[in-house]
Amino acid sequence: MTSFVGRRHEIAQVRAMLMSSRLTTLTGVGGVGKSRLALRVARGVHRAFRDGVWLVELAKLQSPSLLATAVAVALGLREQSTRGPETVLTDYLSDKQLLLVLDNCEHVVDECAELVSTLLREAPGLRILATSREPLHVAGEHVWSVPPMSLDVDETLESHASGESPSEALLLFEQRAEAVLPGFALGPDNLETVARLCRRLEGLPLAIELAAVRMRALPVEQILLRLDDRFRLLTGGSRTELPHHRTLRATFDWSFDLCTKQLQTLWQRMSVFVGSFSLDAAEAVCADDDLPRQEIFECIAGLVDQSLLTRDEAGSPVRYGLLETVRQYGQQRLRESSGEAVLRLRHRDYYLRLAEDAEADWFGPRQLDWLTRLRAEHSNLRAALEFCVTEPGQARVGQRLASALWIYWIACGLLTEGRYWLDRALALDQELSAERAKALWVSGYIAIRQGDNSAALAMLEECQELARRLDDRSALARGLQMNGLAELMHGDHARGVELLEEALARHRAAGEPDVNLATTVFYLALAVCTRGDLDRAVALCEECRQMCESCGEHWSLSRTLWILSLARWARGERQLAIENVRESLRIERVLRDPISIALCVEILGWIAAAEDEPKRAAKLFGASRKLFEPLSEFLFGFGYYLSWHGEAEARSREVLGDEEFDDAYEAGRSMPLDTAIAYALSESAKAETVVAPSLSSPLTRREREVAALVAEGLSNKEIASRLFIAKRTVEAHVEHVFIKLGFNSRAQLATWMTEQWTPHRSVDNEFGG
């Protein structure tokens, strides 16, 4: 967000070290600029790494146990099996040539050391650039201690007199001060004072930036005076050079003291958030009688104005965040005031309500909004769950929170993490309760998706027994449903159908259509389809499809369409099957569930093999296999799926021959996710970057108006003027359009809007087949 200043010598040194060492760690005090330097170096060397440069931001990670999972998520791996995330990482990285940037390792340094050691041993093409306040102490590690910015007062005065550039520290102060006080520049009247100030701050970039922000309210002489007073207080009157850690603390103490009482209070309370947060969250968690809800926004604006709080307007609504060092300072102050426990409880309760609201409102048109919001709140949800499993007496609420997020875990491919939290909460509280019954069926469902049927069956049996003892009809119906699915996947089709039929009857008796009824219907459709009752399978799918479409629901609709395509393929209705599965895949392009995408790609491979397109089938099988790799077993180990795949692969291999089949298969495996989706949809390479709308009739009337004006090239401000609405409202509409259509640029939207009015034309498939 701000310009990068200086550091030429450091960049050259770190680049040289990075090229000669597989592990380079940048160390130094907080605020010295380790992260900025690492990112600057990483950008400069990205072309040297065939498989790219990847950033893992660890500051938001509170649970060391999730370190490997966090790295996997940053790499785009959606681990969904019972394999450990370390195993998934080593398998994935074993043949890669890439640079991994691990930023802010200090609070998980032991776990980082262990993981880094393992990854470097198993992945010979991997190099790691880490930032930490202390070395990792791993064999072969090269450590570079990031120094403060260069500052020589006498040399600076001579340089300025001769018209040369000032030292790095002074240049940084000048640029940041000019940003808040237009027209500010170093000159003979202020140069020496600024130099003294920067020397007092020991050239620490964060300290300099915080001081420069004060130019809004104070001249540099008064800033220096106040800072000198603060330093004298902290060192007991000593005028000797100050240690780095005390310098930064002094800077924050000084900034804290310059805040009003309300700003200080909010700063402390907001430290319970991890990552970014919304205004609504801040009001709910931080407000009380001392800091009324209606005053939260003005306090936030004050902290943003003082550069203590960041503001992210990329999404809608606007989100805020504390720099990690600023957050840690606020957290320390909060602990000193003995208020942390109360705030963490409020934080947990807010995210519990959020999760339960999302679950209750899931079966409807706001699914995409909820997914977007939950993804944005992932770090805070983790923090709330960590509170539940570490604070005595809170494990049952942890079961409740982790269970409420069941659709999030599944829809976003976060199976391993979801089960991690559920298992911890279940182990901590084994008393009979409705919360435990729900957590058991949710964990059982996730286990089925992971291919871990034996564990699933055990959990689901306990769930049903507990539900009967508690007379919990909802949990019993879900337990029966998931048990039926597990039996189906385990190979006992008769038992699976029996249980699903009973679950369906119970859900129908419950009343209104919801996600529980829909999932039971489409899983029963799958069960009867595999038994050969194709007519009933189609009828059930059509029932579920109508239910979903009438409610504006897409997650269940996607799965229903896939099963419908399976039934129609089995009936020999190939064109209808293709239409159904592609419609499902367009929805998944937005929802981004990798396993559902893999299933769509897989069935299109079966159809391609049946239609004498063996090369296309081989590519689709390669793409599907790659997406299934995070699972313990390909195609869940489900016998019917494996049989159909085996027949289709054998047929394609026989036509092509082993060598040509394997080449096409590897080409499919090498496709990035979006390329694989475009290929499966028979879109050209050009269409791959300008995708079709992901959902049927996705845009509202107002969104279509806004999209049309975007296509004309109007800015958000111009659109607001044209439609007589607020600019912020336009921004929200544009963001929703991007989400619904799966776009990330105005150019994509403009192209798509143009093509909506262009007569249909055939497009050559540039991928072949």
Percent strand equals under 5%
Report the sheet with the most strands, covering strand number, pairing sense and barrel closure: 5 strands, parallel
Mean pLDDT: 85
If you consult CATH, what is the topology of the largest domain? Rossmann fold
Instruction: Give the tally of β-strands.
Output: 8
Low-confidence parts lasting 5 or more residues at pLDDT below 50? 230-246, 685-697, 757-769
Q: Taking strands numbered 1, 2, ... along the chain, how are they ordered across the largest sheet?
A: 2-3-4-1-5
* Helical segment count: 39
Q: What is the total number of structural domains?
A: 7
Q: Work out the oligomeric state of the chains in this entry.
A: single chain
Name of the level-1 CATH class of the largest domain: Alpha Beta
Overall shape: globular
Which CATH-level-2 architecture of the largest domain? 3-Layer(aba) Sandwich
The portion of residues assigned to helices is 55-70%
Rg over alpha carbons: 29 Å
CATH superfamily of the largest domain: P-loop containing nucleotide triphosphate hydrolases
Outline the secondary-structure elements:
Layout: H1 8-20, E1 23-27, H2 34-45, E2 53-57, H3 67-74, H4 85-93, E3 98-103, H5 109-122, E4 126-132, E5 141-145, H6 153-161, H7 168-180, H8 191-200, H9 205-213, H10 220-234, H11 244-258, H12 261-270, E6 277-278, H13 279-286, H14 296-305, E7 310-312, E8 319-321, H15 324-336, H16 340-360, H17 367-376, H18 378-390, H19 395-404, H20 406-411, H21 415-428, H22 434-450, H23 453-470, H24 473-490, H25 493-510, H26 515-530, H27 534-551, H28 555-570, H29 574-591, H30 594-610, H31 614-628, H32 639-656, H33 658-669, H34 673-680, H35 685-689, H36 701-711, H37 716-723, H38 727-741, H39 746-756
Parallel strand pairs: 1-4, 1-5, 2-3, 3-4
Antiparallel strand pairs: 6-8, 7-8
